Amino acid sequence: MVAKNTVLTSDEQLKQLDNSLVVIRQQIAAMKKCLDTKNGFMIALKHASTFLGELRTNVLTPKQYYELYIMVYDGLEYLSTFLKDNHPNNHLADLYELVQYAGNIIPRLYLMITVGTVYMSIPDAPVKEIMNDMMEMSRGVQHPIRGLFLRYYLSQRTKDLLPTEFHDNNNNTTSLTGDLTDSIHFITTNFVEMNKLWVRLQHQGHSSERMKRINERKELQILVGSNLVRLSQLENIDKIYYKTKILPTLLEQIIQCRDVIAQEYLLDVIIQVFPDEFHLSSLDDFFNATLSLNEEVSLKKVLMTLINRLIDYKQRESTGDFEKNFKNLTLENVFDRFIEFINKINELKPDLSSEDYSSILEGICKLSIAYYPNNYDNINCIYKYAIDKFNEVENNDNNLKIERHWKLLLLVPIDGYDDIKLFLKLDENYLKFFNLQKTSLKRTISLEIIDKFIENEVKLDNCEEVEKIFEILKSIILIQDDLTIKKMGLKGSKYGESALFGSDSAIAEDTIDSIEIVLQQEKLAKFLHLISNKNPYKCFELLCQVKKYLQLGKSKIKYTYPTLISIVLKLIRKLNLIHKIETKQQKIKVSNFFKFISLLINEINELSNQPSLTLNLNLITAQLADEIKLIDISYDFFIESFMLYEQSIIDSRLQYQTLITIISKLIESKNMIELNIDNFNQLITKATLYGSKLLKKTDQCRAVFLASHLWWIIKEVDDDSTTTMTTMTQISLKKDEKRVLECLQKALRVADNILDVSVSLELFIEILNQSVYYFIHGNDIINVKYLNGLIELISNNFKTAGEESGTSSGTGTGTPLEVTYKHFDRTINYIKEQRGIDERFQQIKLS
């Protein structure tokens, strides 16, 4: 044995452990050998006492001591089995007295418990007397670790032998065998004594070893908690008995010990091991106890454990079983009890940290949603408490630390309800509390709300819902100075102008949006698609309401207004498909849709320098107006597009691209041709003129010959004269042969003036292709003579170019001229192929 209070190093402790394990192993083997030998029982007890003596050490850590204990337990288990199988009843009573004469208290008590529990298992044994005797004798070991393991052994040996039935007090047998009351007293007494030993361990040794003691206590805590597990496993205990008899005793001991580790751990064990019905029946007692705990105990941790347990229970049980288990409990009181507890906290613990307070409110909010999902007043009440607490700490420097907790509280209804729209039923307290938060936090929560709606494709179909949700989303709509980046700082960066704004050359703003704002606004734009109503006119009203909020974003409308416009255009198409734009009144209603779009486009143009965007939106709208035969509206949108082209499109390349788009949209405006040709002629004349004024000659040439299609437009319609299959018939909507020729001739003159021969020839070939198109479709001026002359012109130019470069056939290997010649060759081959289809092509000279 090592001297008392000797402090060993880690290596010395391991050596001591190994030596003790060797002794125990040897003595157990000797004990078993003696037990198997006739008349060797007393010697076996001597060997048992010897290996039990190794448990008297006080130099090992709890983990090392546990290794000794396990090996000793196995040895005593063998002895216990031997006693049960080989000793008559009367001999066990004598033996129980005999082992108590062992020289040392540790071997004496372990042997007494071993024999005593075997004695308890026989019929007519004085169980109650033995229980009381063993409990009383165990008080003799007051060393924390040795005493804890001894009592743990007592608990293990007796767990299946304790009385499990209540008996009448007048029953004579009760005084001998005991009843369930005695079992409860036995376990609770053992728990109280073990807890005292466990707490006492904290005060052992030098103050410098405080953390070491804390770790050792945490290693030993399961021994103390095992008593509570035993209590919870006793049958025939109902929630009333638990509330009146068991819980008060446990809580009294927990409160009196005043130890933080013990109080937190033991309350957690009580919550985990006893049935949920017991907790719900004793909420008031539990709450009152938590208010009397050590100030350093985490009230949040204890309460959140209880709340999560109750929530899991509600989710685990079916509705029928849940109600059946609560015949004697008024469920409506559960939330009220928590609220009463919050009031007590405010009164008795006004200094409770905001982090803990918000976490408790978060848990109660989750519990209310689980138990009373349709009672929104409960949630409103919680946010009222949150507002009051927030205002108390508004000027506190620690506000930054609790931001995460406020966020979690605000997200509870978002994540808690199966249908996220239900959180919109909350009253103004939620919004008030939300608006108290920092902009960054409000923005984060808003984005999570948007994600939830988009993920679940939840539609918003009435004004109240739209108003409530956008009051929250204001945080990502309004301008945020902290998310802007100076233009000068972006020069050359990966988030430059072209990345954010396209190729517009002029940006009027001094700052541009960060990539974070761009992503936020893109997400908001996706969210707009969830604004929906089966009635298109009511849906339009919702979009008008949304516009009032989006316009607060000022320059950021360039991200959201286009989506809003596309949704309105979709509504117009929907009305058109179901034939609801026929009467004058219906057309007036739909015209309001277009007025709304015009307003949106104008605001985009005023608040953000995005001419390409606004011009394209005008063109798309003009095209749709033409489709539904509102040609005057279509004309107005085309005029707006032309004005933007003249005033704002400066870059020459962008001018060409925009003009091509305008030409394509005009070609598709077939209803305007049929219903108001004068307006159409004005537009196409202007478009052709734009093409002739482009800066680059190549762009000018292509724009002019493409504009020729504005004077020669064909519409394909179903031919109803055939009954076997559907065929398409071409109807000429506009044929102006002279203007077509003028455009092609103008394009030829421009191409001829280009100095680069290969570029000039490429344009000639493109004009030839356009001419072949008109020839096929019956333009009398673009005839065989015209095509022959154009082919001859191109051939002569190739010949001249070849002579100048010194190559045959006007081509050189790998040169741009060779690529151009291949293009010409493909065109000639096409004309040859057409000779087999259209005899007119026979007259075209190809050599």
Protein described:
The N and C termini lie far apart (120 Å). The relative contact order is 0.03. The chain has a two-stranded antiparallel ribbon. Among the domains are: 8-125, Orthogonal Bundle (Tetracycline Repressor, domain 2), CATH 1.10.357; 135-164 and 177-233; 238-320, no CATH class; 330-434; 755-847, no CATH class. Helices cover 70% and strands 3% of the residues. The radius of gyration is 46 Å and the shape is elongated. The protein has 847 residues and is mostly helical. Strand 3 (712-719) and strand 4 (727-735) form a beta hairpin. The chain contains 39 helices and four strands. Plays a role in vesicular protein sorting. This is Vacuolar protein sorting-associated protein 35.
Quick recap:
The chain has 847 residues and is mainly alpha-helical. It is built from 39 helices and four strands.
| First-residue to last-residue Cα separation | 120 Å
Shape: elongated
Strand content: under 5%
Sheet with most strands: strand arrangement: 1-2
Q: Roughly what percent helix?
A: 55-70%
Furnish the topology, listing elements before pairings:
Layout: H1 10-35, H2 41-53, H3 62-86, H4 89-98, H5 105-120, H6 127-137, H7 144-158, H8 174-177, H9 180-201, H10 210-233, H11 239-257, H12 260-273, H13 276-281, H14 283-290, H15 299-316, H16 319-324, H17 332-348, H18 354-371, H19 376-392, H20 403-416, H21 428-435, H22 439-456, H23 463-477, E1 484-486, H24 487-490, H25 497-501, E2 511-513, H26 515-528, H27 536-550, H28 557-577, H29 584-607, H30 611-627, H31 631-648, H32 652-668, H33 670-675, H34 677-692, H35 697-707, E3 712-719, E4 727-735, H36 737-752, H37 757-776, H38 784-805, H39 816-834
Antiparallel strand pairs: 1-2, 3-4
Helix pairs in contact: 1-2, 1-3, 2-5, 3-5, 4-5, 5-6, 5-7, 6-9, 7-9, 7-10, 9-10, 9-11, 10-12, 11-12, 11-14, 12-15, 14-17, 15-18, 17-18, 18-19, 18-20, 19-21, 20-22, 22-23, 22-26, 23-27, 26-28, 27-28, 28-29, 28-30, 29-30, 30-31, 30-32, 31-34, 32-34, 32-35, 34-35, 35-36, 35-37, 36-37, ...
